[in-house]
């Protein structure tokens, strides 16, 4: 008797209706596309195929398989220390952004600024694959820029994605944007934590939820300090982002960011009103195993 080979994702996560991963993973097809994944797949007590989501190598293999099978990405190599982004959650941001742009009558020649693209360059990869958008992607880490550039080169994405190094870690747009730059939108997945200690505490809680209490200090999605924490945490980073957006208000139609902590949203709206934004939207969305939200704002009249 053939076993059901999908892992079911809980329906209350509310993935975007167009998200092709909302119903789970076909591990047979994924293993055929990326054979390394086979070494991590096992049959659980419910007689379905899955992987150990507390194992960073298994998570990385799964996401590589998804990129090969669904997005024609055949090279996606980066150091194990770097954050391995879960593809379904990252794809949701792209889809919700597409909805926002469409509602604003922005349908052609879409250009997106990705703030903090990381070593994996994941948002530009998905944005090009799903919508054929153009991207400028930034990062403060030279090693991440070099790794992302190799991914771009190997997958022949140079015509759609270009990289810029942010030399000043305290700046977001300053030193990156040129006077003639114009973007349909900016996107950002900010660091969540204030320190390494806070990040490790969150990891311990996550592993406990996965019944892996013995794996202390091991992040299943990995991540370097630039990717995971920022002085003052998510709140400080986002408010720096809000302020700088007001200095470059004519160079993006929509500025957007993911917001992990719900209690930050009210303060974001208050700050944007003071900064002169004309429209602010908060869009609730699923992000992997948690609920997140995208906040979008513009300083333009229409």
Structural commentary:
With 302 residues, the chain is an alpha/beta fold. It has one domain (53-298): Vaccinia Virus protein VP39 (Rossmann fold). The chain is 35% helix and 19% strand. The protein has helices at 27-33, 56-71, 87-103, 122-131, 142-154, 196-209, 225-228, 233-247, 265-275, and strands spanning 6-7, 25-26, 42-43, 49-50, 111-115, 134-139, 161-165, 183-188, 252-259, 279-287, 290-298. The strands form 3 sheets. A 7-stranded mixed sheet has the order 7-6-5-8-9-11-10, sandwiched between helices. Helix 5 links the parallel strand 6 (134-139) and strand 7. Helix 3 crosses helix 4 (122-131) and helix 8 (233-247) packs parallel to helix 9 (265-275). The radius of gyration is 19 Å and the shape is globular. The N and C termini lie far apart (59 Å). Mean pLDDT is 86; it is low at 1-12 and 213-229.
The helix content, as a percent range, equals 25-40%
CATH class: Alpha Beta
Strand content is 15-25%
Fourth CATH level, the homologous superfamily = Vaccinia Virus protein VP39
What's the shape?
A: globular
Sheet with the most strands? 7 strands, mixed
Count the E strands.
11
Query: How are the strands ordered across the major sheet?
Result: 7-6-5-8-9-11-10
Output mean pLDDT: 86
Distance between the termini: 59 Å
Assign the CATH architecture.
3-Layer(aba) Sandwich
Q: Could you state the order of secondary-structure elements as H and E?
A: EEHEEHHEHEHEEHHHEHEE
- What class would the helix/strand composition place it in? alpha/beta
CATH-derived topology: Rossmann fold
The DSSP helix count reads: 9
Using only C-alpha atoms, the radius of gyration works out to: 19 Å
Low-confidence stretches: 1-12, 213-229
């Amino acid at each position: 008797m053939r076993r059901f080979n999908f892992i079911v994702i809980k329906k209350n996560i509310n993935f975007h209706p167009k998200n092709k991963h909302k119903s789970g993973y076909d591990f047979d097809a994924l293993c055929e596309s990326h054979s390394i994944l086979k070494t991590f797949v096992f049959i659980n007590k419910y007689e379905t195929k899955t992987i150990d989501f507390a194992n960073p190598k298994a998570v990385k293999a799964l996401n590589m398989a998804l990129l090969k099978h669904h997005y024609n990405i055949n090279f996606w190599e980066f150091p194990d220390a770097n954050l391995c982004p879960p593809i379904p959650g990252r794809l949701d941001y792209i889809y919700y952004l597409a909805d926002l742009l469409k509602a604003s009558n922005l349908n052609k020649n879409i250009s997106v600024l990705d703030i903090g693209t990381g070593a994996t360059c994941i948002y530009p990869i998905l944005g090009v694959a799903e919508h054929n958008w153009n991207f400028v992607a930034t990062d403060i880490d030279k090693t991440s820029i070099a790794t992302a550039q190799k991914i771009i080169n190997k997958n022949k994405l140079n015509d759609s994605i270009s990289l810029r190094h942010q030399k000043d870690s305290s700046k977001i747009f300053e030193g990156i944007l040129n006077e003639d730059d114009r973007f349909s939108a900016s996107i950002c997945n900010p660091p969540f934590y204030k320190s390494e200690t806070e990040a490790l505490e969150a990891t311990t809680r996550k592993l406990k939820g996965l019944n892996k209490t013995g794996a202390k200090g091991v992040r299943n999605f990995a991540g370097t300090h630039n990717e995971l924490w920022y002085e003052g945490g998510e709140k400080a980073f986002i408010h720096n982002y809000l302020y700088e957006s007001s200095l470059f208000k004519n160079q993006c139609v929509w500025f957007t960011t993911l917001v992990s902590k719900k209690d930050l949203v009210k303060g974001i709206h208050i700050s944007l009103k003071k900064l002169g934004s004309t429209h602010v939207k908060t869009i609730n969305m699923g992000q992997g195993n948690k609920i997140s939200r995208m906040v979008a704002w513009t300083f333009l009249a229409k």
